[in-house]
Amino acid sequence: MTLKSHVKKNAYYDSVVLMQVTKELKKTEGIQEVIVGMGTDLNKELAENLGLLTEEIKNATANDFFVTLEGEEKIDMEEILLKIKELLNQKKTSGGEDYRPATLRSAMKVMPEANLAIFSIPGEYAFDEVKKALEQDLHVMLFSDNVSIEEEKELKELAQEKGLLMMGPDCGTAIINHTPLAFANVVKPGNIGIVGASGTGTQEVSVIIDKLGAGVSQVIGTGGRDLKEEIGGTMMLMGIDALEKDEKTEVIVLISKPPSEKVAHKILERVKACSKPVIVDFIDGDRKMIESYGAYACISLEDTAQKAVALSKGEKPKDFDGFSIDEKLIDKMVENELSKYSQKQRYVRGLYTGGTLAEEAQTILTESIGEIFSNKPKKPERKLANVFKSEKHTVVDLGEDEFTIGKPHPMIDPSGRADRIVEEGRDEEVAVLLMDMVLGYGAHEDPAGEMIESIQQAKSQMESVNGHLTVVASICGTEGDPQDMEESRKKLEDAGVILLPSNAQAVKFVEKILKRIQ
Fold this sequence. Notes:
Elements: E1 2-8, H1 15-25, E2 31-38, H2 41-49, H3 55-58, E3 65-71, H4 77-94, H5 104-110, E4 116-119, H6 123-135, E5 139-142, H7 149-162, E6 166-167, E7 173-176, E8 179-182, E9 189-196, H8 199-211, E10 216-221, H9 234-245, E11 251-256, H10 261-272, E12 278-282, H11 287-292, E13 296-297, H12 301-312, H13 327-338, E14 347-352, H14 355-369, E15 394-397, H15 401-404, H16 415-424, E16 430-438, H17 447-464, E17 470-476, H18 485-494, E18 498-500, H19 503-517
Parallel strand pairs: 4-5, 5-6, 9-10, 9-11, 11-12, 12-13, 14-15, 14-16, 16-17, 17-18
Antiparallel strand pairs: 1-3, 2-3, 7-8
Helix pairs in contact: 1-4, 6-7, 8-12, 13-19, 14-19, 16-17, 17-18
């Protein structure tokens, strides 16, 4: 094997596009490992870790494009560069023929009536560009992460001063005037407004609202750190203000992982003064505290959606903590799975692309079977020693940084999860695989289809040692999403996957199995 590299000075390409090109190049005969990227410190570190760092790449800057590979001697770098050019042109063509302005200023000339700018750029450049947009009176959705909390605070204070929304950093989901932005689903219009500091949590709630026959007015994202004490819930408070004034919104839903206690009280004080009913899902939050401010507290994301729909219809909300399928049928399905396991099998492995869905799974399972190992555990002592290796009962969020260095998010590129499924299937103590399938804009064109071969391989592996692998999933998506919801469902069921209507129900199904094999 030989190491080859090439650097092209002052040639910028989108990082996600380059990750997709890297994925395609890996399929080339004779290539063992390859990276196509910009010369950032992070990409250089990745190249070094993979043994692909050359002196040429060491000297590259963040504005330089590079390719480095390890492969057979016969690999012709000129042919590789031509293939990269072809792939980049394909990506460009697939985006359509619309004019794409190179700067914010030129974009404003093309669309002077625009009032919202969406940013997905390296975090180190985000602050200056977002500030320019806010100064030009544009609302902002900032998809980028790696923005310091000090910068976030300054940007949100500027936005607040100007009466503008600053959704982000790391804001992955919003639906504004019925237009899905970033990772969002196609849901029916309705009278439920959502302010979410949690991307897939917001998706799950909006999708279930749609499945229940209701709809949303607006979905405002805040970014995951908005309810930290340093930020003070600035955008969630502005979101509540906006939805209270919105004539189409009759019910308001707030979604977040637990805020700091000080910020929680601040948000709830605003909720108490709100003229519209408010449902608050501070995941793992204090129910009594929420209810003491006159808000409706929730026990799951599905419960949140159920209560929102009830209020939107003028009905009294009640807790939903079970199955929407006949529980006798559920118990029969559980018995069928239990009859097939070997004596060794006892553990669940949760492989999630959605961080909030992974956290919800941990919450539900911890209450019944004890603490779960994770890359994002509820207690430090349950932190995986190696995030790439599961221990006993494990739930991992595959969208965390340790899994996405130099790779797209697993909702964009599911191949990392597909590999992990096969790996888990080799562990003779595993009984159940639990996972989410997230559809919608921004997600892979066929996330279910990408998993089928790995699921079948994992099941076959377990059968070869006289065991049985139960695979349980839920689909976070609607019939209106770009992916074919019905086809996704059929592919999974044909592969032997047990599908439940929501993440909470999928986890509760697994819980029933685990209680019997402990």
